[in-house]
Specification:
heterodimer, B: 8 helices, elongated
Chain lengths: 160, 224
């Protein structure tokens, strides 16, 4: 298996990370595709330095979230063009239409959070342990626990 | 009332549906790799390298001009003043390249975002100081350019001071225009960013993000 084939197979295995990070940081479908491609490029560029000291998913979360937060914060500096479906990196069903009411409420709650807390919520919802979350975000486990506790409280207060 | 833990279950169900419907387009992924597409950071580093090369060429050319005219103090001083400005810009560009090359996106989010934002602050400061110094250096630059390109040697101290004052008077005007029209320059993202840099809006945003990062890293701070 060549390095490129190994990379593709790992990305395929973890494509959900790519999809969910893009969905969390971009509302528009073309923006999501731009971000997905930018994350894929960065993953490929950094793949050589992946030394397996951490899990692939941890490393992929770090890259995807770092690129997504930068993308989210960056001014709109690039010309956009509309992509056809066969030019898209990730193809899925029309997600918005298939979302349950609860998921829509959750997305609305997440939209009210800043870029860093969005990452925290995503990692929590994806079932990562506090240790894994602390490894991705670079904050202590206690800090993760405190923040999750506060987020739960905020959610209870805001989402009625 | 919805709870984040209940949401976790709904989210997992939602994830399962996604797994069934989602397809990764391997052809697009291969094309991305084969094309050697550059990431945003690489594009920025390449641009900085180009900028650094341009400043280096200017520094060398100005050094040559200053040396050639070492006998004529007025030209040597003008050349040296502009060269000093160019050296400062070159040093600032090199500093940005070094900072960009240190960034490894595979490191934890808080640390990388901090590095990226500090780089952004540095870039904005370089733009602001470049503008400020450029306004002062404008007059000696005119002397150097007129002499080097056209062999002109026709200026008086009054002309020199008038140009320095003209350059300085432009600063508040440029800042005012940037503050007033910076956000409406939607058709030119580059100009929009430049004007937002000059107006100080981007610097404020970067500083606010650095503060929110510090808050994020500190568990004793409130969440929202």
């Amino acid at each position: 298996m060549t390095i490129q084939e190994r990379f593709q197979s790992l990305i395929d295995e973890h494509k959900k990370i790519l999809y969910k990070v893009c969905n969390l940081y971009c509302k528009n479908r073309d923006d999501r595709e731009d971000l997905a491609q930018e994350i894929a490029v960065q993953l490929w560029r950094s793949f050589g330095s992946f030394d397996e000291r951490c899990q692939f998913s941890t490393w992929m979360y770090r890259i995807a979230l770092n690129v997504a937060i930068s993308f989210y914060r960056r001014e709109n500096t690039r010309a956009r063009y509309v992509l056809s479906d066969n030019e898209r990196l990730l193809n899925a069903i029309d997600e918005t239409a298939s979302q349950s009411e609860e998921i829509k409420v959750l997305y609305r709650f997440i939209e009210g959070l800043d870029a860093l807390n969005r990452a925290l919520v995503l990692l929590y919802l994806e079932g990562n342990s506090y240790l894994e979350m602390s490894e991705v975000l670079g904050i202590s486990e206690t800090n993760v626990a405190t923040k999750i506790g506060r987020l739960k409280k905020t959610m209870r207060q805001e989402v009625l | 009332m919805l709870d984040l833990d209940e949401m976790k279950e709904k989210w997992a169900e939602h994830g399962k549906k996604l797994d069934e419907s989602m397809r990764l387009n391997r052809q697009v992924l291969s094309t991305l790799n084969l094309k050697g597409t550059r990431s945003a950071l690489q594009r920025m580093t390449a641009w900085l390298a180009l900028e650094g090369a341009a400043w280096l060429a200017i520094v060398i050319a100005l050094g040559g001009f200053t040396y050639e005219h070492s006998g004529a103090l007025r030209f040597a001083l003008a050349g040296a003043a502009v060269d000093l400005f160019a050296i400062g810009m070159l040093a600032a560009t090199i500093r940005q390249i070094v900072a960009a090359r240190k960034i490894d996106y595979g490191n934890p989010v808080a640390a990388i975002q901090k590095q990226l934002e500090e780089m952004r602050v540095l870039r904005i400061r370089v733009t602001q100081w470049g503008l400020l110094a450029g306004a002062v250096v404008w007059a000696p630059l005119a002397i150097v350019v007129c002499k080097a390109l056209f062999g002109l040697d026709d200026y008086s101290p009054a002309w020199l001071w008038a140009n320095v004052l003209f350059g300085l008077s432009l600063i508040p005007l440029v800042v005012w225009v940037s503050k007033r029209f910076g956000e409406t320059m939607g058709h030119s993202p580059f100009l929009q960013r430049l004007m937002q840099d000059i107006a100080g809006h981007n610097l404020s945003a970067a500083e606010a993000f650095l503060a929110s990062l510090a808050q994020f890293e500190n568990q004793n701070q409130s969440l929202l």
